[in-house]
From TrEMBL, chain A:
It comes from Gilvimarinus xylanilyticus. Residues 1-19 form the signal peptide. The keyword Signal applies. One of its GO terms (biological process) is protein transport. CDD domains: LolA. Keywords: Lipoprotein, Protein transport, Signal, Transport. This is Outer membrane lipoprotein carrier protein LolA. It comes from the Bacteria. Monomer.
Automatic annotation (TrEMBL), chain B:
This is Membrane transport protein MMPL domain-containing protein. The keyword Transit peptide does not apply. The keyword Signal does not apply. It comes from Gilvimarinus xylanilyticus. Keywords: Membrane, Transmembrane, Transmembrane helix. GO terms for cellular component: plasma membrane. The chain crosses the membrane at residues 7-24, 250-269, 276-296, 302-321, 342-362, 368-390, 424-444, 640-657, 664-685, 691-710, 722-741, 747-768. InterPro entries: Mycobact_MmpL (IPR050545).
Length: 204, 773
């Protein structure tokens, strides 16, 4: 079985009050489900989408988090263009199962079996931005915090291995139809924080 | 005098029947035609390698499931797996493909310095430190999702990840969906991959039955999905199909023979009471024959099973003799007297039939030996039932005689046969023989290709093709066998071969290969890797510099560097000894003090190039079981042909002393001519001659000689004796002739030659006497 060992690096998330609170609201009522569906519809409607991304890797053995900055574009069909500008320029083009990495002008095709972590990351990214609750229900236990203005907070807890072996939970924050932050918490205290911004769009 | 013999027969029949009934549920049916052939022609090492490969892959099955609604499939798959786990026939059901390298997973952990791929070894040795530092940092810092603590501590350069990817490489086509479920795309449809490891041999009928039942139950939740498709690959599906085919053929041959015999018996003897009596020895013989074969060989080959059904036509002969004798005696019938007169010919008959089947063992084919054991033991038990129980059960006279209609038919057929044969003069016969030889020679062709003698289920083959097109999960039959005097030398040899094999992959000779060297480095390579690591990664300061740049805390840095500076070397002897015990880990074994490694080849495209390459490397052998078997089939075809001609020569010489030259030729001619015509007929039908045709001709010779001798020796003008021979021929043709309906080419060919040959041998048999006299 392909492992997700390296996939989705470690993440500590000192959950804070708001995030802690999300886990008190499992999506198990019709009202919750309807609200989740309306958020999901808004997220889906915002495709195609492009913006900036900032990745912070927080590991307990690091004095400071590792920070990367770049941009991304996601089409309605699910193709992803992921570019990191700092600290190094690397670009990933994802089209279905095909992933191409471009470094220093050289192109390399990545197969899922060769780099399951990279493949797994983009699969998760695509699924979050094409938010389809009926698909997520089969993989995650879903939580949705009560409405606060236009912002929403959602938690996704993997139900079973192999995902549950490496990811403790995903915390997703959004505003309207735009996802603004994703936190990937590992089973230890490490975590990854992904922040998305959309200069071309007004965050409602 | 007879009583002890009768009691012996009763005891033997009862014991064998009970033993047979106990053994029947334990039958294992082998459908692999390769299992028919002798193993002595290749080395013990090749035998062991092929046994390991077969065991490893035979117990595995791969199922691909898809539907229009992928989400529904994902939701229901766990339920499918739970249901599969309920079956004792299944050891492991799992999503995705297993990996033999899992055995070494514990060794890989925290031991990066000794596990370096060729590419990383070259990179560490040849690239500048700055270049290494930059490329590694770029990889760590730009990886989507980032690197985690374990990787930073134990595999900072991702060298171990590269080694594991190579060692445990999954097929490129295998994808993982968002839920972690493995799948492949086939013709734009998503198919989830499910691997099953069986708990027992797929040849076991009990396993097959349980497996078929659990499959029907387990996949029920998916079956109602729109666009649901399941693609099955693995030996178990072929054995299931083979057993179903065998059952159908056994039914055809067994039932066909039985129905024919019932009609004949009712036509001739006009008494329903003879039917159970006639079939009791047959049933006992078939059950005992199967049980004996299972006991002797541990399994029953499909070919022996089908031949077992043909026993029906031969085993009935003993009953027919008894019925005919009683029929002929009329009201004067006394069973003890009848038995006294029959005991000698019936005993001689079973001995001669047994001897005939024993001649099959001279072929050296395990398959034919199985047929001989099954048929021989079956006939002995049928004989024992007749001798042991018939005198008691048929103690009263029959009370009727040959009907007038039947008498008329027999007279007409006999007259027609003799009339036609009397018109065939010596010159005409010569012309027929020359024409036959000419036509036969013009269309003569031989074929010793094993692949054309076995037709697998086309639906399964189509599924196999679809799956193999995307997933190379089963190796090709040819393989490379590497030999060395020690485990360490073997690993070094395998390592030395890797660059050439990789070049073979690049050149398109094969898709991929599996070698032990991919999983475990030799002791020498472990030390060399550790030296390179220590020199280029630790002592050069590369690792410390990387940690510094990444901001790893100094306490953590020291711990990581200390750990990565003290690798644990692996004792390859001890590790491979443990590995060799794994039932599903082919690739290594020790035979007579020598160590062997098997390199399995996947998606083989150009065996000739790899074979040529292997010939140039000491200690490496290219083994192609199919070519080897085809060569063997050729040798045995030639050997059987010589045996056949030799048998005719010996019979001619033996008959010469009794009948003179002309008389001997007259007796042999019907069988010889029948064989010639049968062979020409199958050639004309487009069949190429194989060892199975020649073996069938041996049977035609044996049975044809019986008919000819009967005509030569007996008063053939008697209606009752003509009827007895006619009935015997009819039952033999019914049973062996029905083999020609088999879907297995080898059985079909055998049956067709026997069918044509026996009918002609019967028709031409009167030549053995001087017809015009």
């Amino acid at each position: 079985m392909i492992r997700f060992g390296v996939f989705l690096g470690g993440l500590f998330f000192s959950l804070g009050c708001a995030a802690q609170g999300v886990l008190d609201y499992p999506v198990n009522s019709d009202a919750q489900r309807d609200r989740l569906e309306s958020i999901a519809q808004a997220v889906r409607d915002s495709l195609p989408l492009g913006g900036d991304v900032r990745q912070e890797k927080h590991l307990s053995v690091l004095a400071e988090p590792i920070i990367g900055k770049g941009s991304f574009a996601l089409s309605a069909e699910g193709t992803i263009d992921w570019q990191l500008h700092e600290p190094f320029a690397v670009r990933y083009k994802v089209n279905g199962e095909k992933i191409v990495r471009l470094v220093d002008g050289e192109q390399e095709v990545i197969t899922p079996s060769a780099e399951p972590s990279v493949y797994g990351f983009f699969r998760m990214f695509e699924q979050l931005f094409a938010l389809k609750p009926e698909q997520l229900y089969s993989v995650f236990t879903l939580y949705l915090a009560p409405a606060a203005n236009n912002e929403w907070h959602m938690a996704l807890v993997p139900q079973k291995a192999p995902l549950a072996d490496v990811v403790d939970r995903l915390l997703v924050t959004g505003s309207g139809g735009l996802i603004t932050q994703v936190t990937i918490a590992e089973s230890d205290d490490d975590y990854t924080l992904l922040e998305f911004s959309y200069p071309d769009r007004e965050t409602r | 005098m007879l009583t002890p013999w009768v009691w012996c027969c009763r005891l033997l029949a009862t014991f064998m029947l009970l033993a047979g009934l106990w053994m029947l549920p334990r039958l294992e049916i082998n459908t692999d035609l390769l299992a028919l052939f002798p193993q002595q022609n290749h080395s013990a090492a090749e035998q062991q390698a092929e046994r390991q490969l077969s065991q490893s892959f035979a117990n595995q099955a791969l199922l691909l499931v898809g539907a229009d609604d992928n989400r529904a499939v994902v939701e229901r798959l766990p339920q499918v797996i739970t249901r599969l786990q309920d079956c004792p026939c299944i050891k492991t059901p799992q999503l995705g493909l297993g990996a033999e390298g899992d055995h070494f997973s514990d060794l890989y952990s925290d031991n990066a310095p000794i596990f370096l791929t060729d590419a990383w070894r070259q990179k560490l040795q040849n690239q500048s430190l700055e270049s290494l530092r930059r490329s590694t940092l770029r990889d760590v810092l730009t990886r989507p999702g980032g690197i985690n603590r374990d990787a930073l501590a134990n595999d900072p350069l991702q060298t171990l990840a590269a080694f594991k990817r190579r060692a445990l490489a999954a097929p490129e086509a295998l994808q993982i969906d968002g839920a972690g479920f493995p799948y492949i795309n086939l013709e734009q449809q998503k198919f989830y991959v499910l691997r099953i490891e069986l708990a027992a041999s797929p040849y076991s009928v009990a396993t097959q039955t349980q497996f078929a039942q659990v499959l029907a139950k387990a996949f029920a939740p998916l079956r109602d999905l729109s666009g649901y498709q399941r693609l099955d690959t693995g030996a178990i599906f072929y054995t299931l199909s083979g057993t179903a085919q065998a059952r159908a053929e056994v039914s055809t041959v067994g039932l066909g023979s039985a129905v024919g015999i019932v009609v004949l018996l009712l036509l001739v003897f006009r008494q329903l009471s003879v039917l159970p009596l006639a079939f009791a020895p047959i049933a006992a013989g078939v059950v005992a024959g199967l049980a004996m074969t299972q006991w002797v060989f541990g399994q029953v080959h499909i070919m022996a099973l089908v031949f077992g059904a043909a026993l029906v036509g031969v085993a009935i002969d003993y009953s027919l003799h008894f019925f005919s004798k009683r029929f002929a005696a009329g009201k004067r019938w006394r069973s003890d007297e009848g038995l006294r007169q029959l005991i000698a010919p019936l005993t001689l008959g079973v001995l001669s039939s047994g001897a005939g089947y024993l001649s099959f063992t001279a072929s050296g084919f395990p398959g034919f030996v199985q047929i001989a054991v099954l048929s021989g033991s079956g006939l002995v038990v049928a004989y024992a039932v007749v001798i042991g129980f018939y005198p008691k059960l048929l103690s009263r006279p029959a009370g009727f005689s040959l009907g007038p209609v039947l008498s008329k038919w027999i007279a007409q057929i006999s007259r027609l046969q003799l009339g036609l044969l009397s018109k065939l003069t010596a010159p005409a016969l010569t012309i027929v023989v020359v024409l036959l030889l000419g036509v036969g020679a013009s269309v003569w062709q031989v074929n010793d290709d094993i692949r054309q003698m076995q037709r697998a289920d086309p639906q399964l083959q189509a599924m196999d093709q679809r799956v193999r097109g995307a997933l190379a999960v089963q190796p090709a039959l040819p393989y490379l066998l590497v030999q060395a005097s020690s485990a360490e030398t073997l690993l070094q040899r395998l390592e030395a071969l890797q660059p050439q094999l990789d070049a073979g992959v690049q050149a398109g000779y094969m898709h991929s290969y599996r070698s032990l060297a991919k999983l475990l480095p030799s002791g020498e390579r472990q030390r060399r890797n550790a030296e390179i690591w220590q020199d280029r990664v630790i002592d050069s300061g590369l690792l410390a510099s990387m940690y510094e740049t990444l901001g790893v805390k100094s306490a953590a840095q020291s711990g990581f560097i200390a750990s990565l500076s003290s690798p644990v070397f692996i004792d390859v002897d001890a590790e491979l000894s443990r590995y060799a015990q794994l039932p599903s880990a082919p690739g290594y074994f020790v035979n007579r003090g020598k160590h062997y490694g098997v390199i399995s080849l996947y998606g083989l495209q150009d065996g000739a190039a790899l074979s040529a390459f292997a010939a140039t490397v000491p200690g490496v052998r290219w083994v192609d079981p199919v070519t080897r078997t085809n060569q063997l089939l050729r040798e045995y075809r030639e050997r059987a042909s010589v045996l056949l001609l030799g048998a005719y020569a010996v019979i001619l010489v033996l008959l010469w002393s009794r009948y003179g030259v002309r008389g001997a030729v007259r007796v042999v001619l019907p069988a010889a001519l029948a064989s010639g015509i049968a062979l020409t007929a199958v050639l004309f039908l487009g069949q190429a001659i194989s060892v199975f045709h020649i073996m069938a001709l041996l049977l035609v010779l044996g049975i044809g000689m019986d008919y000819a001798l009967f005509w030569r020796e007996s008063a053939a003008r008697s209606q009752a004796t003509f009827l007895a021979v006619g009935l015997s021929t009819a039952t033999t043709v019914l049973s062996f002739g029905l083999l020609s309906l088999s879907a297995t080419a080898a059985i079909h060919n055998f049956g067709l030659v026997v069918l044509v040959g026996i009918v002609l041998a019967f028709a031409l048999a009167p030549w053995a006497q001087k017809i015009r006299e």
